Each structure stands twice: as structure tokens, then as C-alpha cells.
């Protein structure tokens, strides 16, 4: 109430003629007028390690709780033994074009269900649920529920019999606990019980020293025994009133204020070390948090969070829709003008990354850290044939570089565990993995040969290492991760096979992720995505070894192999070929369009440098269509941005911001009321993919230059963004009006030449001297790895890819320099 009154006064003082909103200042808030009725309406909070979904009921508050290391199973890899001979046979069958036989043998060698002595990865599991039951709150009014993503706090408020009850819930970025603060407008009116449940088979719930305790052990699946022991404690601190208890409930009566501290810990230390002590850890976290005043803790939480969150602001303009509740805005988005929801969705993606991936924690899995099940969809593990990578697409360009670190830690682990699969399955040096991993860093086949025979997971993950280096210029980081890059290159050096017809070097056997080219046949050699991935792996190694002055002779071998990779090919339908032979179907609507990896996230296809390939990529996109699973649409936003088609990219954002279907499976994605992405079911990659896509529409930094507003849609004619990152350590602020850049500020953290591409005839003015760009950019972070000239089918009809009229200019920057440009 107070806030609304304040808001009114401000409005009167400014004389602004906008109507008073029910929720003041809600641009960075998700807002709702009723409690969550299901998980897809509850609101996620997290500090990287501890997650909760807050339901916000008036009669009952429900917190579904997660701790990121509660996974089924125990340490150990899942590498199948004695299958090398079979792989050799499959290679021979592929060379003889006996593809069905190759598939049969692959399926037989790696069956769909995990053999007795193996496993196909472990599920990430919920801890359980905490409930606060309020007496006499059935008739509540003036209900409001929010998630403030500027402060990382979820709030609930409502009135009962003239008394206002408020709650705020957060997962502390200052100390490792979840905190719930309850207040009311009338002294002594807080009366409620605290109780808990957990679905784990092995568990005990009891009261000990005024604390509610939940002990448990994670599940056993396939050949693995559940060995994660966890302990959760809920500890209420009362102001006024009285605390009593039953065997498994805490009862609070007549309190003025209550702060509940929830501490969760496990025995997990590392993928191969479970020697942690949950009892000791739980008490340590708790006593540290309790040693501070609640308000001090709250302040520290907000400031630790904002250190990251506030680096980027995005204003796309507000309309009357900004004042509606989030669920309604999603329902209406397709038929309304609500650019502010796009900005909220973008910032929500950043919020989710900060909340699910902090330094020293596990990387964000398929559901980030939020999962209510013991057996969630696809185990809520790490699927690395797109999903895990997509989670981290917004890490660098939206200025959250530190949030990328858990992924690098995981790559370090995999570069060790993956040596077993490289050696045992392929008799190769280095390391590799297939399309999945989990807490235990498995690297073997998952889900059988049809889906799992894809030895490319490491190839894709290591792109993140190289890109982090390009954004930050951090040589120490490159040194630390050099062995992972080298081990990945070594693996492909040993694994590549000569293709009998054209003598190219190709990965065999493999597939174009999860797609098939004939009946039930996915297995083949030399798919376009594999070729593109190996191209990047080899170039990363060659570049890193040069920068760090290491392994020059190995680098020569890698260069030779690089020169024998197949070029990209434009097929008979004018499409970018997915497979080595021209067998793409124009009616193929598969969610994976893996061969467009070369367009995004890789930068091998550029509209300015390779218009034919770009046109072919566009044709492939057009044949596939728009609507698909959440992550697939998220990828498409990025692709259309790279194809410089802002309106089509915006159309995909619209598709993504469609209310998600209630079905729990299928190929038709969208957005749930809580703004989380639906595969369906909930899968977080779509949120991150779309966030990255929005950044990519505003700024691109590959292909030798920084391109400003490359794919601005008509729906976003005016706006401003601050703090986006470009490769080479540049930070960019921009304003635009009538779809044209009006203001630009470039901050340089590494120095070096800045090459900028903008729309033609902008007439930019600056105190900085800038000149029209000529030749190659001499900035070391903008070197382009040259691709081979693509092959083109005689049947392909290409009309030419029209690029917008642009100009490029250069200016010198110093470390720490700030350079401003304006259109007068
Ligand atoms: C890949 C995708 C599915 C799903 C799963 C987690 O297998 O093909 O659509 O996203 O990962």
C-alpha cells in the first residue's frame, strides 16, 4: 500500500500522465495475483547451490527444495568394455555403404536399455518439500506474489481480517542458506506450523533442538547404489511468540516476526570423492548465517547478486501491458505490443544463470537446479549435443563471465574421465565423451547406439573454453585449460577415418544429433556438424598452441589433418547439407538442425564472407519451420539473428513466449506462467537460448568485427542497452531510435583495434579518430579461421543473399579507455 501511495506522489510531482499501476516499479519483477497452483506457476530462487520453487500460498506456503549435488548413484564411469572391434566393423560397413547393417550392429553393441553392468547416467533428484501451514488464513484478500529479479527475492503479501501478512524468500548469495522472513502488520499474529516431506526411500524427519531435520540418501539406479547423503535443517528465529514442537513439526504461535533459515548439505566433494560430512557442513552454513542480523544478511545478498546482475540493463520501452501480471502478459504477448516483456525475459535468463551457476558450484543442468522429481525428464542431467552448451550461450555476451566457470570445471573433470572412453572404445589418445554426462562425469554411451553413438561432446564443450578466452583475453585461463583443448584435438587426430570416395578425413561412426536420414538409420560418417566441430577443435588447438608457444610439431600434424576435412556443401534443394551425401529431405522438421552449428554458435558461416552458404543455411531453416521444442526455438532466434533477419528472430521470440501446453511431453514448446521454458516439460535451455538470441540481435562479435544492431526487428524500434560484451574485452552501451543507432559507448578492457560495423550513412560523430576499415582486423581476438570453399550441387538454385548496406570503421583503443559516438 505504502509503495503505491509513494508512487502516486512521485507521479503528481512529475506531472506524468500515466495511470497508476497496481505494482509500482514492476519492470524487473514477475508478478501474480494468486498463489501458484502447480510447479510451473511457482517461482525459482537459487544461489547456484541451493534452489527452491516458492508457491506462495496463503493457507500453506510450499517450498520445493533442491541442493545441486543430490543425484542418484555413486562415483564411476559408464564406458562399455570390448566394443572397439565392433566399432571397426561399423566403420567398414559404412565404407561399404551398408548403412542399415551398420545401424543394426551399433544398436546391438550399444542396446537401447542399459546392460546390467552399465548405466546410462544418473538422475538429479529433489531434496524434498518444506511447508508452512497457517491457521485461519482461508479468506485472504489483496493477494500479491512477485519475483524481484533485480534483488533475487520472492515476495508474498495478502490480508486476513484487516491484518497484512508478508513473506520474503531468498537463496542467499552471502551465506549458503535459504531464508524466509515472515512479518505482519499486527503484533503477535503469526501462527503457523513448519513441517516437511521427502520422496527419498531412505529418510528420517524429526525435531531436534528447535530444528526440523530431514536426513536422506539419494536413489539407486541401474548398476549404481545411491551414495549421496544429505541433511536439511529448518531453523526458525522468533521475535515474540512461542515455539513448541511435536515429533516432526515445529509450531509457532503469537510471533511478531519469524525468520526461517534452511540449510542443506551433502557428503559430495568431487565427482570421485564423497568424503564430506553433511552434519558438519549444515551446522557451519547455519551458524555463519545466524551470526549476522537478518537485515545485514539481506543487504549482503542483494549486493552480491547485483554485482553481476546490474552489469547489463535493457530498455525496450513500456506500454500499458507492463502493468499486467506476468501470466496474463504471456497469454497476450502474441496479440499485444509488450516489448517490455522481451526485456524482462532477457533479464530473467540472466537471473537464472546467476542463480544456477556460481563459481565453485555444479554447472546448470537441464533444469538449472530446479527439479521436483526423483526421475525427472532426461534425468535432468547434462545433455551435451545442444542443451548444456545452450545454457551457457548468454554467459559471455550478457556480461556473466564468472557464471561460465562451473562449466569449465566440469570440462576439466571430463578431460580426465573421458580418457577412459577414448582409450577403451576408440584406442585413441586424448579424451572424449558422448552426448550425456552427469554428476559423476560419465563419458560412455547413453540411451544406446541410435542416440548415443556421437563421440563429439567434448568437441562442442571445449568451444566454450576458447570463446571465454576470446571474450576475456585471460591467458592464465587458457594455460589452465590448454590440456583439455589439446586432449580433445588428440582424440580426433586418432579417430578420424579416411572416407573411401573423396578421401576426406571424417568422424566414423557418428550421427547428426538424434536425426536420421533413412528409416531408422542415424549412423554414418562425416556429418556436416562433426566436420564443423572438428574444424573448430583443430583451430582452437592450433591457435592456443601458438599463443602459449607449445607443441609446435603436434600443431603441424593437426594442420595437416585440418586440411583434409570435408568442406561444407550446398545440396540439390539449395540447402546446407546435413550429411556428407546429399540426402536432406525438404519436409524434415526435426528439432535439431545440427549442421547450422556452423552459423551459430560457431562463426564459420558469415553473410558477408560466404553469402552462398548463408543462403543455403537460410533455406535449411525455412524448410525446417519455426515451431518446435523450447530449446529449438531458442536456437532459431540466434540463427535468424545471424541471418540478419530481426523480424523472423522476433517471430521466434513470440513463438517462445506462447503459453506452454499443459502436456508434459512433445515437440511443441512455449513458456509457463513462471516464465520458465517448456520443452515440454520444463527445460531451462530455452530460456538461456532465447536470452542469448536477444543479445545476438543487438550485437554480434565474430567474423572480424563488432556488428551493432545487426538484427533489430520492427517491433523494437527504440531502446537502449548497457553492458553487453563483445569479444576482445569490449563492453558496449547503445541507444537507438526509429530503428537507427543514435548513441554508442565502447569500453575497452584489453586495448587493441576496435572494428565496428553499422548501418550505412549513420553520420556518427566522436572525439575519437575513426577511419574506414581496410584489410583484416589486426585485433588478435578477431582473427577468422578460414573455411574451405563450399561445394555446390549442380541442381542447387541460389538467388544470392542480400546483406544490408553497412560500413565498417576502425579506431584504436587503450586498456581502460572509453569511447563515445553520437548521431547528431
Ligand atoms: C536432446 C533433445 C531432446 C531433449 C533432450 C534433453 O536429446 O533432442 O529434445 O532436449 O536432449
From TrEMBL:
UniProt domain Glycosyl hydrolase family 95 N-terminal: residue ranges: 30-270
UniProt keyword Hydrolase, yes or no: yes
Q: Which InterPro entries match?
A: 6-hairpin_glycosidase_sf, 6hp_glycosidase-like_sf, AFCA-like_C, Alpha-L-fucosidase, GH95_cat, GH95_N_dom, Glyco_hydro_b
Q: Which residues form the signal peptide?
A: 1-24
- Tell me the ranges covered by the Glycosyl hydrolase family 95 catalytic domain, including all copies: 294-698
For this UniProt entry, the molecular function terms from Gene Ontology, in alphabetical order, are: hydrolase activity
Going by the UniProt record, its keywords in alphabetical order are:
Hydrolase, Signal
Q: Does the keyword Transcription regulation apply?
A: no
Q: The Alpha fucosidase A-like C-terminal domain covers which part of the protein?
A: 700-779
The superkingdom of the source organism is Bacteria
Q: Which PANTHER family match?
A: ALPHA-L-FUCOSIDASE 2 (PTHR31084:SF0)
This chain belongs to the protein called Glycoside hydrolase family 95 protein
In which organism is this protein found? Chryseobacterium caseinilyticum
Amino acid at each position: 500500500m505504502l509503495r503505491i501511495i509513494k508512487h502516486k506522489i512521485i507521479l503528481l510531482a512529475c506531472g506524468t500522465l500515466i495511470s497508476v499501476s497496481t505494482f509500482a516499479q514492476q519492470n524487473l519483477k514477475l508478478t501474480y495475483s494468486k498463489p501458484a497452483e502447480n510447479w510451473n506457476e511457482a517461482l525459482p530462487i537459487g544461489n547456484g547451490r541451493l534452489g527452491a520453487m516458492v508457491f506462495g500460498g496463503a493457507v500453506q506456503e510450499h517450498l520445493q527444495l533442491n541442493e545441486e549435488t543430490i543425484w542418484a548413484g555413486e562415483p564411476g564411469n559408464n564406458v562399455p568394455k570390448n566394443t572397439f572391434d565392433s566399432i571397426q566393423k561399423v566403420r567398414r560397413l559404412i565404407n561399404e555403404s551398408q548403412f542399415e547393417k551398420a545401424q543394426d550392429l551399433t544398436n546391438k553393441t550399444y542396446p537401447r536399455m542399459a546392460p546390467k553392468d552399465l548405466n546410462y547416467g544418473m538422475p538429479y533428484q529433489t531434496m524434498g518439500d518444506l511447508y508452512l501451514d497457517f491457521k485461519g488464513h482461508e479468506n485472504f484478500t489483496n493477494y500479491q506474489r512477485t519475483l524481484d529479479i533485480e534483488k533475487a527475492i520472492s515476495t508474498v503479501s495478502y490480508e486476513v481480517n484487516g491484518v497484512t501478512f508478508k513473506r520474503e524468500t531468498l537463496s542467499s548469495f552471502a551465506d549458503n542458506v535459504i531464508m524466509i522472513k515472515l512479518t505482519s502488520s499486527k503484533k503477535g499474529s503469526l501462527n503457523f506450523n513448519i513441517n516437511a516431506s521427502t520422496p527419498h526411500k531412505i529418510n528420517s524427519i524429526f525435531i531436534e533442538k528447535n530444528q526440523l531435520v530431514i536426513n536422506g540418501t539419494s536413489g539407486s539406479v541401474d548398476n549404481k547404489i545411491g551414495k549421496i547423503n544429505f541433511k536439511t535443517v529448518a531453523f526458525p528465529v522468533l521475535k515474540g511468540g512461542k515455539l513448541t514442537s511435536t515429533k516432526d513439526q515445529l509450531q509457532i504461535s503469537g510471533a511478531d516476526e519469524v525468520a526461517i533459515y534452511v540449510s542443506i548439505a551433502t557428503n559430495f566433494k568431487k565427482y570421485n570423492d564423497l568424503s564430506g560430512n553433511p552434519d558438519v557442513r549444515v551446522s557451519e552454513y547455519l551458524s555463519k548465517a545466524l551470526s549476522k542480523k537478518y537485515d545485514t544478511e539481506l543487504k549482503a545478498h542483494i549486493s552480491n547478486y547485483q554485482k553481476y546482475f546490474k552489469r547489463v540493463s535493457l530498455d525496450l520501452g513500456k506500454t500499458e501491458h507492463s502493468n499486467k501480471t506476468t501470466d496474463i502478459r504471456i497469454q497476450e504477448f502474441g496479440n499485444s505490443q509488450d516489448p517490455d516483456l522481451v526485456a524482462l525475459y532477457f533479464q530473467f535468463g540472466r537471473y537464472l544463470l546467476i542463480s544456477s551457476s556460481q563459481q565453485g558450484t555444479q554447472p546448470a543442468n537441464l533444469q538449472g537446479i530446479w527439479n521436483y522429481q526423483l526421475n525427472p525428464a532426461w534425468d535432468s542431467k547434462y545433455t551435451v549435443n545442444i542443451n548444456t552448451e545452450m545454457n551457457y550461450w548468454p554467459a559471455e555476451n550478457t556480461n556473466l563471465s564468472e557464471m561460465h566457470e562451473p562449466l569449465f570445471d566440469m570440462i576439466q573433470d571430463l578431460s580426465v574421465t573421458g580418457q577412459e572412453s577414448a582409450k577403451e572404445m576408440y584406442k585413441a589418445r586424448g579424451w572424449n565423451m558422448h552426448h550425456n554426462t552427469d554428476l559423476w562425469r560419465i563419458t560412455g554411451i547413453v540411451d544406446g547406439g541410435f542416440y548415443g553413438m556421437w563421440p563429439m561432446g567434448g568437441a562442442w564443450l571445449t568451444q566454450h573454453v576458447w570463446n571465454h578466452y576470446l571474450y576475456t583475453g585471460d591467458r592464465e585461463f587458457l594455460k589452465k585449460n590448454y590440456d583439455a583443448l589439446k586432449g580433445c584435438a588428440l582424440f580426433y587426430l586418432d579417430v578420424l577415418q579416411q572416407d573411401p570416395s573423396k578421401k576426406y578425413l571424417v568422424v566414423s561412426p557418428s550421427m547428426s544429433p538424434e536425426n536420421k536420414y533413412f528409416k531408422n538409420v542415424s549412423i554414418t560418417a562425416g556429418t556436416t556438424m562433426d566436420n564443423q566441430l572438428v574444424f573448430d577443435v583443430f583451430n582452437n588447438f592450433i591457435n592456443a598452441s601458438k599463443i602459449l608457444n607449445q607443441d609446435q610439431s603436434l600443431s603441424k600434424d593437426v594442420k595437416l589433418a585440418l586440411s583434409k576435412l570435408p568442406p561444407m556443401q550446398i545440396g540439390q534443394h539449395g540447402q546446407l547439407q546435413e550429411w556428407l551425401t546429399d540426402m536432406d529431405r525438404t519436409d524434415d522438421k526435426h528439432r535439431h538442425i545440427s549442421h547450422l552449428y556452423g552459423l551459430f554458435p560457431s562463426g564459420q558461416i558469415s553473410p558477408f564472407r560466404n553469402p552462398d552458404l548463408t543462403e543455403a543455411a537460410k533455406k535449411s531453416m525455412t524448410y525446417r519451420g519455426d515451431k518446435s521444442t523450447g530449446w529449438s526455438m531458442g536456437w532459431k532466434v540466434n540463427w535468424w539473428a545471424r541471418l540478419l533477419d530481426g523480424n523472423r528472430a522476433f517471430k521466434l521470440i513470440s513463438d517462445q513466449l506462447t503459453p506452454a501446453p499443459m502436456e508434459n511431453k512433445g515437440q511443441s514448446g512455449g513458456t509457463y506462467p513462471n516464465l520458465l521454458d517448456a520443452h515440454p516439460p520444463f527445460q531451462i535451455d530455452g530460456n538461456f537460448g532465447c536470452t542469448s538470441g536477444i543479445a545476438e540481435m543487438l550485437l554480434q562479435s565474430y567474423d572480424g568485427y563488432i556488428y551493432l544492431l545487426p538484427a533489430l526487428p520492427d517491433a523494437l524500434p527504440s531502446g537502449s542497452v548497457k553492458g553487453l560484451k563483445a569479444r576482445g574485452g569490449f563492453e558496449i552501451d547503445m541507444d537507438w531510435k526509429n530503428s537507427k543507432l543514435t548513441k554508442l559507448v565502447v569500453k575497452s578492457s584489453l586495448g587493441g583495434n576496435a572494428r565496428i560495423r553499422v548501418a550505412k550513412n549513420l553520420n556518427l560523430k566522436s572525439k575519437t579518430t575513426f577511419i574506414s576499415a581496410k584489410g583484416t582486423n589486426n585485433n588478435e581476438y578477431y582473427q577468422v579461421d578460414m573455411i574451405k570453399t563450399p561445394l555446390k550441387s549442380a541442381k542447387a538454385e541460389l538467388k544470392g543473399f542480400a546483406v544490408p548496406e553497412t560500413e565498417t570503421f576502425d579506431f584504436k583503443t587503450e586498456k581502460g579507455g572509453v569511447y563515445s559516438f553520437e548521431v547528431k
